[in-house]
Amino acid sequence: MIEIQNVHKSFGALQVLKGINLTVAKGEVLTVIGGSGSGKSTLLTCINGLEQIDSGRILVDGVEVHAKSTDLNKLREKIGIVFQQWNAFPHLTVLENVMLAQIKVLKRSKSDAEAEAVRQLNHVGLADKLKVYPSRLSGGQQQRMAIARALAMSPDYMLFDEVTSALDPQLVGEVLDTLRMLASEGMTMICVTHEMKFAREVSDRVAFFHKGVMAEIAAPEELFGAPKDPELQKFLAATH
Amino acid sequence: MFNYNFRWNQALNSLPDMLEGALVTMEIAILSMVIGITVAILLTLFRLSGNRILYAIATTWVEIARNTPALFQIYMVHFGLGGFGIHLSPYMSLLIGIAFNNAGYLTENFRGALKAIPETQTRAARSLGMSPLQAFQNVILPQMLRISFLPMTNQMVWAILMTSLGAVVAMNTDLYGVTSELNARTFRTFELFAIAAVIFYLITKAITLSARLLAARLFRY
Questions:
Q1: Is B1 part of any domain?
Q2: Which terminus, N or C, of chain B has the lesser number of Cβ atoms within 10 Å?
Q3: Do B129 and A85 touch (CB under 8 A)?
Q4: pLDDT the model gives residue B162
């Protein structure tokens, strides 16, 4: 379970998170929508401790992420994150990309890591690209590789930060299909996205962020069907 | 000017001695690069550490190495340290002097290479649970060495040429030293130094060519 309690966060004078309260249960798929600068991406990087918070608490399975005593490297083994920019390691083949952290962080043997990497790459439809360097892959393929790389760590939670925003439109579908597959398999996911159709389809709940505040959270039918918050109404009118 | 009699035969008879000197020159250059690259990686880590003292050590090293003559650096290792009772052989003084210079230049090359690697690479590595050092070692370092590979080749060539500065510490077993001693005995100055120059040229060409071949094999991405 991920518990976010009254989290505040500023970059200099700019307040990006103004008291967020949110709980994500095991197996839940939460999507977060909102305009740019609404703080939704920052929240994800706070959850796995890549960003500090100013006040409040974030607990992952009861462990406080920003407590001094928390071993962040250990915690991050449980939380996979995939970014808008896929960040393939260019000097490693697709297979090696997915093996590296398994060997270095989880201390898996080379053969175990390889077997798991092959399994995950198969899962995301890249079984024929194992020995290829990322520079030979399309953006959509690189993004799916990044997803396989995170999944190979056997995380309990997956965070997706606008994973389709940097892709050419014709490549968005293949990545969303991968996310749909994960959702159907019961992975606990928080997806920050601009894909409204996707959010409506896969989410258990959808949260709308506006200027650092979570303005509304509800089941997709309710949030998209009968939005209450005036900013959300405006946002949906503009994106439809 | 035109009554100098070339005596190439006499000079060419010394070729075996000069080639032996060339081997010493290459040995010093290679060792100085191995030490230089190792120290430069360390200094790069110092700069990234966020520790002010370590940062200052790295910056001072780079500033001195790049902004004072290499000849002074070698001289200081030999005679400067000698003043403190640390007496090194000409070979060691030359090796350490060149390695010091290499480390300074390479650290600066590495800094440029790091700038070319997106910060998101570290972020991706860290988000997979790697420690800062693991991220550096497995993700950043290989890319950094690849980007700075050609500047490293230049430094290697420069290291070969710098061995001739061993003259100031009475180094007499490297290519310059051997040539200089032969010259003192025979006065075939033009011939001897022309041959030495050709050997220097061939060594540096061999280095740049083999570096290019190596790069093609190593960096297939």
A1: no
A2: N
A3: no
A4: 96
Contact B12, B19 (CB under 8 A): no
- The model carries a pTM of 0.86
β-bridge partners, A63: A60
pLDDT reported for residue A240: 66
Which residues, other chains included, contact B98 with Cβ-Cβ below 8 Å and sequence gap of 6+? Answer: B28, B29, B32, B36, B70, B74, B159, B162, B163, B165
The pLDDT of residue A129 is above 70 = yes
Query: Contact at 8 Å (CB) between A63 and A77?
Result: no
Q: What is the CATH number of the domain that holds B128?
A: 1.10.3720.10
What is the domain count for chain B? Answer: 1
Question: Taking 80 as the threshold, does the pLDDT of residue A189 lie above it?
Answer: yes
- The domains found in chain A, sorted by start residue, are 2-66+73-239 (3.40.50.300)
Look at residue B2 and tell me if it is in a domain. Answer: no
* Residue B146 contacts A where some CB pair is shorter than 8 Å: yes
Which residue in A192, A140, A203 sits closest to A166, CA to CA? A140
Contact present, A153 and A101 (Cβ < 8 Å): yes
Question: Do B134 and A104 count as a contact with CB atoms less than 8 A apart?
Answer: yes
What percent of chain A has pLDDT above 90? 72
Contact A90 B134 (CB under 8 A): no
Q: Give the span between the Cα atoms of A139 and A16, in whole angstroms.
A: 29
CB atoms within 10 A of CB B221: 15
Q: Which residues of chain B have pLDDT under 50?
A: none
Q: Alpha helices of A107-168 — where are they, by DSSP H?
A: 110-123, 139-151
In a domain, B140, yes or no: yes
The 10s digit of each residue's pLDDT in A48-105 is 999 999 999 999 999 999 999 999 888 888 999 999 888 999 999 999 999 999 999 9
Domain interval for residue B47: 8-218
For residue A80, report the phi and psi dihedrals to the nearest 5 degrees: -85, 145
